[in-house]
Amino acid sequence: MPDVKIGDRTVAQLGFGAMRLTGAAPFGDAPDRDTAIAVARAAVEGGCQLVDTADAYALGLNEELVAEALSPYGDDVLIATKAGQARPGTRWVPLGRPDYLIQQAHVSRLRLKLDVIPLFQLHRVDPTVPLADQAGALKDLLDDGVVAAVGLSQVSVAQLEEFRSIVPIASVQNKYSISDRSDDAVLEHCEREGIPFLPWRPLEVSDAVAATVQPIADRLGATPSQVALAWLLQRSPVLLPIPGTASLEHLAQNLAARDLTLDDEALAALG
Predict the structure, then answer these.
(1) Phi, psi of 118 (to 5 degrees)
(2) What phi-psi label fits residue 154: left (phi over 0), alpha (psi between -120 and 50 degrees) or beta?
(3) Cys bridge to 119: 80, 96, 158, 193, which one at CB 3.0-4.6 A?
(4) pTM of the full predicted structure?
């Protein structure tokens, strides 16, 4: 499994998404805190070097939990967080005003107990704010040393290139899985440009592809989600999946997918 370079840091190809560690809190449905902390630590001990969170996950509680579980961070742990979405109630609303993005970067830095945020990602492009203004805020954070690298989430190729004309972009985090390949064009562009692509919701196996995945899983002695994750790891060297879970058992299954090699027959069937 190849390593992936984000900014000036190199990390293992399989990361960990922390969102599930706090569930939908503070709106309820939060996992047991001790278990959540144990899962975060087990993910890092198991070799996940990139840990992804966001200021809007549980209204900041997720960042605080990541810090409680993992701080002080070792040199081999890269913390990635995001800002640019608000949570009025249970909705997700893009919010990309420059002053807000800059404020949230400083808030995240405090919650995460970091001097510099290794990877700070725009959670969503706000259609009500000029893209250049959002990019300018990210560049200011980079120039001021608040963040070490900048990433984007859920962008098109055109948006990515417009951002890159203003600020260096170290990563892209779009929805992508064996079931949802609608952003193949973005992935292929990232491959050409050498930009790491962090697929969110990477374990999704829709009903439409389950009939193909299940026989492969049975033949290889794996679960469908392990096949889905192994497919991503073999799909492209710039892919860095960040599956999340609040279960030690599910975490172990995800980590084991690194040792699952899909043969030519499986890849042809899934292709």
Answers:
(1) -60, -40
(2) left
(3) 80
(4) 0.96
